[in-house]
Write a structure and sequence with these properties.
ATP binding; nucleotide-binding; 6 helices; 3-stranded antiparallel sheet; 2 domains; Potassium-transporting ATPase KdpC subunit; two-stranded antiparallel ribbon; 43% helix; mainly alpha
């Protein structure tokens, strides 16, 4: 009986210690670190505000929808496997804004027939929108990221969209390219990954310049 009591008390002490460590001290430590200069914005979701109003997050890519597709002034993000159903056909749109409440990929292999068909459909749609040959459409324009909410596009995809955005907004192509350059993030630590263009910040810059 004494052995059982001792084991129970030891288990209770361990439970109390771990509860304090993992349920109190660790969360407080994480919170304290998130308050450090340079980290607070990320901890709060990196919300982007214009005139005091939240317009999105620079960590989440949501594809903008043009009121008039024939006069589309926006740079567009990568497609998403969790796109919304805007045309009401009961299935996610092949190109279009993602559902920001969900983050996931398609989980389809490179040789999946549905995925191959979706990629070819996206390629044709984008080529028509940008008035270029399908072979000129870069890979990230037709493939979804693992999260489905990638806020960045490649400089090549941004460059493909420059002539259309310049034509619709009335800005010069040189001016639009300068805005693309200003909103291009370099490689992490100078060597990790590839440069990426933040679509939300770029569209806000284009709107402000127009």
């Amino acid at each position: 009986m004494n052995a059982l009591l001792k084991q129970s008390l030891a288990g209770l002490r361990i439970l109390l210690v771990l509860t304090v460590l993992t349920g109190v001290l660790y969360p407080l430590g994480v919170w304290a670190v998130s308050r450090l200069p340079g980290l607070q914005a990320n901890a709060e979701g990196s919300v982007v505000e214009v005139d005091g109003r939240a317009v999105g997050s620079d960590l989440i890519g949501i594809d903008p929808v043009a009121e008039d597709p024939a006069r589309d002034p926006w740079f567009h993000t990568r497609p998403s496997a969790v796109a919304l159903d805007l045309d009401g056909d009961g299935s996610a749109d092949n190109l279009g804004p993602a559902d920001g409440s969900i983050s996931m990929g398609s989980n389809k292999g490179a040789f999946d027939e549905d995925l191959v068909a979706a990629v070819e459909d996206r390629r044709a749609t984008i080529a028509d929108r940008e008035d270029v040959e399908p072979s000129q459409v870069p890979p990230d324009a037709v493939t979804a990221s693992a999260s489905g909410l990638d806020p960045h596009i490649s400089p090549a995809y941004a460059e493909l969209q420059v002539p259309r955005v310049a034509r619709v907004t009335g800005l010069s192509e040189d001016r639009v390219r300068a805005l693309v350059e200003e909103n291009t993030d370099g490689r992490g630590l100078g060597v990790l990954g590839e440069p990426g263009v933040n679509v939300l910040k770029l569209n806000l810059a284009v709107t402000a310049a127009g």
